[in-house]
Amino acid sequence: MKRPERKPLDRGKLTTERENPRSREIDRASASDIVRIINAEDALVAPAVARERVRIAKAVDVIADRLRGGGRLFYVGAGTSGRLGVLDASECPPTFGTRPSQVQGVIAGGRRALVRAVEGAEDHAEDGARALAKKRISARDVVVGIAACGLTPYVHGALDQARAVGATTIFVTCSPQAVGHIRADIIINPVVGPEVVTGSTRMKAGTATKLVLNTLTTGAMIRMGKTYGNLMVDLRATNEKLRDRSERIVCQETGVNRRRARALLDQADGLGKVALVMALRGVNAAAARSLLEEAGGMVRKAIGAGVKAPKAGGANRQR
Asked: Who is most buried in 33, 63, 99, 174, counting CB within 10 A?
């Protein structure tokens, strides 16, 4: 569907492009005062994100629902916004045990743009549409457009493509003036005010975006049973740090010693939630997997009333 013509916005009037009166003389400030000014501006970010919590929560539920149904989550952005999307996507597999294809970041200019600015890559809507078409997105998927200014053509082109196939669309922007020009199912608009360095949206806008993306994926993964309480039980123990964490979680929640925790994790192919259910229900790995499947991946439901008391000296807690 062709986008209706709208009167172009004057970029100079965007909040993200305005001059910040509190930092107008920052080039004359001492290092101590520069740090104080930046820190004071950064303190405005979390409250701005908090004001969007209703829309963020709605997005969390939508993302969790689509992922449960076999859909995927795509972040699309350019520059800092694109890099933040790729970063958040890349951290989901080690943290939550997702498949690499389940959460993906798409950045204008491709992989090269992750480490070096690709000038002009964001200016072509057709490139954004083409990038998503290559991903073969469908109505089961969710596409999150990220643009601090809210106007990036590449991002809008990608969302046009997403809407054309019936995918759910979400847009994250720090510019309130752009909201009326955005067509998306959910618009998340943390307004952090003008930047310390005029137009440098890698600063407050970037921080706000990072907080929003963290909450979207973390919230959705919690809703999908990727944690037990606040413990990371669906991670892939791919290095010594993560193996140690998995063992400590199993020890803490079941009361077994390290040796037993290691054995349980080996039998569970390194999956913490399977090892927990094995220990707490007294079953083998296959039975634990079946219990988890019946419980929709939720450890709390899988252990149910069959939880065994931990061994003496264990650190099992009521959750």
From this structure: 174
| Lookup result for tokens 């000038």 | 119
First to last CA, the chain: 49
d(CA 196, CA 173): 18
Q: For residue 186, give the nearest of 154, 153, 219, 216 by alpha carbon.
A: 216
Note the pLDDT tens digit of each residue in 158-217.
999 999 999 999 999 999 999 999 999 999 999 999 999 999 999 999 999 999 999 999
182 and 268 in a common domain: no
* Token pair 């890698």 in the structure block, residue: 202
Predicted model pTM: 0.89
- CATH number of the domain that residue 263 is part of: 1.10.8.1080
Structure tokens at 271: 């999956």
User: Could you tell me how many residues make up the chain?
Assistant: 319
Whole-number Å distance between alpha carbons of 108 and 155: 8
SS3 state of residue 146: strand
Distance between CA atoms of 35 and 150, rounded to whole angstroms? 28
Determine the average pLDDT of the residues in 50-79. Answer: 97
SS3 169: strand
Best-predicted range by mean pLDDT (109-113, 119-123, 150-154): 150-154
Among residues 41, 52, 122, 247, which one is catalytic?
122
C-alpha 122/C-alpha 162 separation (Å) is 17
Q: How far apart are CA 232 and CA 273, in angstroms?
A: 9
Question: Tens digits of per-residue pLDDT, 112-142?
Answer: 888 887 778 898 999 999 999 999 999 999 9
Report yes or no on 313 lying in a domain.
no
> Which structural domain, as residue segments, surrounds residue 240?
227-306
In a domain, 78, yes or no: yes
Do 171 and 187 contact (CB within 8 A), yes or no?
yes
pLDDT of 311 strictly over 50: no
91 tagged catalytic? yes
